[in-house]
Amino acid sequence: MNRPVDRARAGRTAAPVSSSRAAEASEAVARAHREEWARVVASLARRFGDLDVAEESAAEAFATAVERWPADGVPPNPGAWLTTTANRKAIDRLRRESKRDEKQKEALTVHVNDAPAPVGPVDDDRLRLIFTCCHPALAMETRVALTLRMVGGLTVPEIARAFLVQESTMGQRITRAKAKIKAARIPYRVPPAADLPVRVSGVLTVLYLVFNEGYLASGPGSDPLRPDLTAEAIRLARLTRTLLPDDGEVAGLLALMLLTEARRDARVAPDGELVTLAEQDRRAWDATLIAEGHQLVRERLASGVAPGRFQLLAAINAVHTSAPDVRDTDWSQVVALYDQLVRLDPSPIVALNRAVAVAELDGPEVALAIVGRLQEALAGYHALHATRADLLRRLGRGDEARAAYDRAIELAGNRAEIAYLTRRRDELSERPDH
């Protein structure tokens, strides 16, 4: 069936869209999705009070952009265009549903009239959306997954990889979370100041995972690094710190992000291969971010309060970024900090990261024994196999190392990391086992 002609174009023949214009529009839509998704969803959530309506209307607006921008051109303000289009989609949807359900009609009247919502201590739609998704009524993993979807704009497969679960399981978890928020009438707001401390743990975990996805994107079709996500996570961490300026873990998370983000420009080679910390050109690190991160770490140490998880991770990164050369790294201090962290967070991933440091201090054989005890718990985690492969390589056990590299490559989703692992594996074929 032919589509109806747009009245604005009636009387003239539509010109074919050039390939360059189509490519420009496609790039603009992708960029807008990275930069504007959270803002559009948060704006809709505030106006309509329904996460399903917000997410689906935002998705429809982006789909419309994919269709129209190649022909009409990219609008001067893509974010405003997408927000306006998404609002219209949401209103149309609620009007359709109101014909079937009087309650929806009542909701339409309330939300389309833009009844003001309480804004709380900070007037930022995205921060309010995070606190909504991180409500204590939801399980912690559900809070994190929902916020990665609604605020970070990550796909369900990307979130599933972050949690090491099946896509179907993660999809059901997110759907149930949105339904629970709607049924329980969980308010869309930053909670009152008195309630902030008990709510902040989930928010910090969310921001950390959003940052991690930007630091090393998990999707096979994604850019290896997603600076939009790291920048948004840092922005929201700064806002959270204005809410809780004396909270050590908020300061620790911000320091951790800054010290990690400082190394971004050195992390991927011109050929697209991941560059490990040991091989990075430290002159390319951002000295301003490092100085700010170090200052935050020093402030927390001076407080005399026992550090939490994010403060310890920030301190570990401070040790790394203090060394002018990898050979100057104080590995005994790194291991000591990991020993403290393991007591707070005895997860297998923390134990794996500690093993990497132990390899530098006590040798690869000691570290390999630690990794061996983690194999069952982290069987589907590519970093376990990559770490094991490197340790086996250093011990001269080439055949075992190749097999471990193969498994790591199979499980990895980031193309820069795959390129690095592939090169390291292929180098093994150039030399026999000892």
Automatic annotation (TrEMBL):
<dbReference type="InterPro" id="IPR046531">
    <property type="entry name" value="DUF6596"/>
</dbReference>
<dbReference type="InterPro" id="IPR013325">
    <property type="entry name" value="RNA_pol_sigma_r2"/>
</dbReference>
<dbReference type="InterPro" id="IPR011990">
    <property type="entry name" value="TPR-like_helical_dom_sf"/>
</dbReference>
<dbReference type="InterPro" id="IPR013324">
    <property type="entry name" value="RNA_pol_sigma_r3/r4-like"/>
</dbReference>
<protein>
    <submittedName>
        <fullName>Sigma factor-like helix-turn-helix DNA-binding protein</fullName>
    </submittedName>
</protein>
<feature type="domain" description="RNA polymerase sigma-70 region 2">
    <location>
        <begin position="37"/>
        <end position="99"/>
    </location>
</feature>
<comment type="similarity">
    <text>Belongs to the sigma-70 factor family. ECF subfamily.</text>
</comment>
<feature type="domain" description="DUF6596">
    <location>
        <begin position="199"/>
        <end position="299"/>
    </location>
</feature>
<dbReference type="InterPro" id="IPR036388">
    <property type="entry name" value="WH-like_DNA-bd_sf"/>
</dbReference>
<feature type="region of interest" description="Disordered">
    <location>
        <begin position="1"/>
        <end position="29"/>
    </location>
</feature>
<keyword id="KW-0805">Transcription regulation</keyword>
<keyword id="KW-0804">Transcription</keyword>
<dbReference type="InterPro" id="IPR013249">
    <property type="entry name" value="RNA_pol_sigma70_r4_t2"/>
</dbReference>
<dbReference type="InterPro" id="IPR007627">
    <property type="entry name" value="RNA_pol_sigma70_r2"/>
</dbReference>
<dbReference type="Pfam" id="PF04542">
    <property type="entry name" value="Sigma70_r2"/>
</dbReference>
<feature type="compositionally biased region" description="Low complexity">
    <location>
        <begin position="14"/>
        <end position="29"/>
    </location>
</feature>
<feature type="domain" description="RNA polymerase sigma factor 70 region 4 type 2">
    <location>
        <begin position="130"/>
        <end position="181"/>
    </location>
</feature>
<dbReference type="Pfam" id="PF08281">
    <property type="entry name" value="Sigma70_r4_2"/>
</dbReference>
<dbReference type="Pfam" id="PF20239">
    <property type="entry name" value="DUF6596"/>
</dbReference>
<keyword id="KW-0731">Sigma factor</keyword>
